[in-house]
Amino acid sequence: MNQTVEQAHMRLTTQRQIILEELGRVKSHPTANEVYDMVRRRLPRIGLGTVYRNLELMAENGIILKLEVGGTQKRFDACIDLHYHIRCISCGRVDDIELPVQQEINEIASRNTSYEVLSHHIEFLGTCEQCSSAEGRPTAN
Amino acid sequence: MNQTVEQAHMRLTTQRQIILEELGRVKSHPTANEVYDMVRRRLPRIGLGTVYRNLELMAENGIILKLEVGGTQKRFDACIDLHYHIRCISCGRVDDIELPVQQEINEIASRNTSYEVLSHHIEFLGTCEQCSSAEGRPTAN
DNA sequence: ATAACAGATGAGAAGGTTTATCATTTATCC
DNA sequence: GGATAAATGATAAACCTTCTCATCTGTTAT
Question: Considering the entire predicted model, what is its pTM?
């Protein structure tokens, strides 16, 4: 599951290479459109569809991570190690959160459901520093 | 936060009443469109916008719960007690899962982030009974 | 009761995100 | 190099959600 573009029998095209590079460059968890904007600075003629297609493909092959978080848009992460996230309910940004991964709750969950449990994800909700400090100010929002 | 329609200074219109009734009738976690379909059987002239507007409003006022889960669509729940969910990666259905709520991890998370932590949600991923048993069959999917 | 007012609705348009289509381009394999 | 398969870019389409606004409904004050 966790592999490289070549091991997934995907051609390492220029587009894929740069999508991967740009995604790896940031610590944020960009949406497809944000990745598109980053990549377009280096490949101005790339299509939005190509970005979507490849993010989806690379996520399916375990090369990158597609975040299963709330909010309207899908987000992607070059770091595929299991870790948890926190999302700002005001501006929507998503950050990593330091918390020991609790693999054991998968087993606990398994005992209480008819589903075949594969994984879990914890998402915290809160307000980020910027939005918290902007709350009082009349002009900001 | 957790209150009735009247306490939220919302008029208890026929539409709101029936939306609440229909949402309370099911144990699933329907999408706005699924609620629309259920309600329309009793109020054929209701608009989809009314359903969206009122689900959103009632969620804001803590009358119902808007699920912060992955997937493309928002889902709603008449049960507002904090509990966790499991989502089928094959068909998308969402069920409750029995697992003690871990309020203490909010505090642990708080120590490791600059966010103001408000809440958290755990979402398990897996395959539901139906999809698991349908996996082998050639015709099903 | 009735008039004035505010809130809610229904219909449709519009917006935003994602996926599908397809002719063209690019890479790979003999 | 030529045949073949895969990937791209452009565009359209699909999908979900929100917005707009004229109309309707309920409330309040007279």
Answer: 0.89
HEC letters along chain A: CCCCCCCCCCCCCHHHHHHHHHHHHCCCCCEHHHHHHHHHCCCCCCCHHHHHHHHHHHHHCCCCEEECCCCCCCEEECCCCCCEEEEECCCCCEEEECCCCCCHHHHHHHHCCCCEEEEEEEEEEEECHHHHHHCCCCCCC
Q: Read off the tokens for B127.
A: 């395959």
CA distance A130 to chain B (A): 9
Of B65, B6, B2, which is closest to residue B35 (Cα–Cα)? B65
Residue ranges of A 60-119 with Cβ closer than 8 A to chain B: 67-70, 84, 86, 88-89, 95, 97-99, 105-106, 108-109, 112-119
Asked if residues B75 and B67 have their Cβ atoms less than 8 Å apart, the reply is: yes
**Nucleotide with smallest C1' distance to residue B33 CA:** D16
For residues A126 and A89, the answer to whether their CB atoms sit within 8 Å is: yes
List chain B pLDDT tens, one digit each, 141 residues: 567 887 777 889 999 999 999 999 999 999 999 999 999 999 999 999 999 999 999 999 999 999 988 888 999 999 999 999 999 988 889 999 999 999 999 999 999 999 999 999 999 999 999 898 876 554 433
